[in-house]
Structure formats: C-alpha cells, structure tokens
Amino acid sequence: MSFGLGRGRTLDAAPGVVGLSSRDLPPLPDDFMANPGGSRLDPRPWFANPDLPFEVEIGSGKGTFLLQHGEAAPGINTLGIEWEGEFYAYAADRIRRRGLANARLLHGDAVDFLRWRVPDAIVRTIHLYFSDPWPKRKHHKNRVVQDRFLADAHRVLVPGGELRIVTDHEEYWAWMEEHFARWTAPMTGYDGPPFERLPFDRADSAAAGELVGTNFERKYRLEGRPFHAAILRKR
Ligand SMILES: C[S@@+](CC[C@H](N)C(=O)[O-])C[C@H]1O[C@@H](n2cnc3c(N)ncnc32)[C@H](O)[C@@H]1O
Q: Structural domain of residue 106, as residue ranges?
C-alpha cells in the first residue's frame, strides 16, 4: 500500500548517507541469545561527527520532530527509527534535502534494534512520541512500552539519560502508568528505583504552545485532544 507521500516524486533516502536499513547490518551472530553483548554495534560512527551526544527517536513517522530537533540542536546526533518503508523514505528524503549531518534514519524495528544492537550506556535521550496504541487486547503485545522495553531503554541510556514520552491515548497512557510505577519503585537486584519520574518539559524545537511538535501532535491539537507526557530519567 502506498500513502502517496512522494506526490509523484521519487523519494531518495540517500542510502548509506542519511538512510540505513537493518537488512544491511551484519547478521546477528549464532550465539546472540546466549551472548547478547556479541551482537552489539555502535551506530554513532554513522554520523559525520560521531563524538556528539547521541539520541534516538522511535517511530519517526514523516520525520518532522527529527528535522526540527536536528536543526534546533546542531550539537546532538539523533537516529530516527521507522519501520514503515514509505515513512522511512519520506523522512530520510527530507533530512537529505535539508542537508542535516546530525540526523539519520534507520529502516527497521526500533524495539529489536535497542534490544539486540545498541551497546550499553550510549544514548542520552530516547524520544517516543504518539506511539501506536494497538487498542485491541490481543494486540497489546505489539505496544512499544513493555517491561522488556523499559529494561532495554535502561540498559542503553547513559546514567541520567532520559526516556521522553507523549501520547494522546487514554488507555495506552494507563498501561504506561502501570509500567512506569514498577520501574520507578525499588527493584530487586538494583540499588533503588531504576528510573526517576519527572514532569515533561517541552522540546526546545517545538513551536509555541506545543510539547514536541510532531505531525501527530499537530493533527490531534487541532482536534482538541488532551495529551499525556512523562520523562523517565535513568538513576
Ligand atoms: C502514530 S505514528 C507517530 C509518528 C510521529 N512520532 C508523530 O508523532 O507524528 C507511530 C509511528 O511509529 C512507527 N512505529 C511503530 N512501532 C515501531 C517500531 N517498533 N519500530 C519502528 N517504528 C515503529 C509507525 O510506523 C508510525 O510511523
């Protein structure tokens, strides 16, 4: 199915420069279940200046946040991860045309990428905005926010690093709150709670009156929907 995002124009994701596909990554080693450390690869060298602080956006959609954040914060590298091919190509094409060196797009599953590929403690911020709510109970397993995801987010974040979340979806928010409560309470095997919960502060790249300024925020704001937002900071 095509969303017609190119409006007749061929989208150029600039493969190998702006856009990367998980299919081009080396295969997971045979023992990746027993030895997860062996499957890690460092995405920071994919950027022109690999030494900048590194952030990840999960589910970039049309790439509006990635673009705005990249322009507002030239001292930060951000990798957007989008699994829907046409959205990936559209967002990467926008980054290419804007000539941004500090924003890159990965075509693939962000949850898998964080779980198996991202090394420990390299990510300063994970952005998760208007994540698909998968409202039917039998599809809840597809939601990004799960205990396993929060464990992976905790592993890849630097100490003090943040998971930033905004949603419009009441029921998914209640689900998130249940998960946040577990991960902001003392946990066996960890010295105190793994995360500290903080109120959401709006993104520097957002326009006046916005929280983050993504496409979905803009669409839902016009409809007058209320939003929920939180920051979990790694302790
Ligand atoms: C509701 S849209 C929100 C897009 C954008 N964040 C915004 O606020 O406008 C959710 C996006 O996340 C993508 N997505 C959902 N789960 C994903 C995953 N596990 N890995 C990569 N992309 C994902 C979807 O394809 C979709 O583009």
A: 19-234
DSSP 168-197: --HHHHHHHHHHHHHHTS--TTSSS-SEEE
Task: Find out whether the beta carbon of 227 lies less than 6 Å from any atom of ligand 1.
Answer: no
- 172 within some domain: yes
3, part of any domain: no
Question: Residue 13: inside a domain, yes or no?
Answer: no
What's the pLDDT at 33?
A: 87
Q: Is 68 in the pocket of ligand 1 (CB under 6 A)?
A: no
* Start-to-end CA span in the chain (Å): 43
User: Which residues are bridge partners to 57 per DSSP?
Assistant: 80, 127
Q: How does pLDDT run across 101-152, given as a tens digit for each residue? A: 999 999 999 999 999 999 999 999 999 999 999 999 999 999 999 999 999 9
Pocket-testing residue among 82, 107, 166, ligand 1, by greatest number of atoms within 8 A of Cβ = 82
> Would you say residue 176 lies in a domain?
yes
pLDDT in tens, 198-223: 999 999 999 999 999 999 999 999 99
CA–centroid distance, 111 to ligand 1, in Å, is 11
Catalytic amino acids? 132
Give pTM, 2 decimals.
0.97
The CATH number of residue 210's host domain is: 3.40.50.150
Is any ligand 1 atom within 6 A of the Cβ of residue 130?
A: yes
Among 105, 106, 89, 81, CA closest to 3: 89
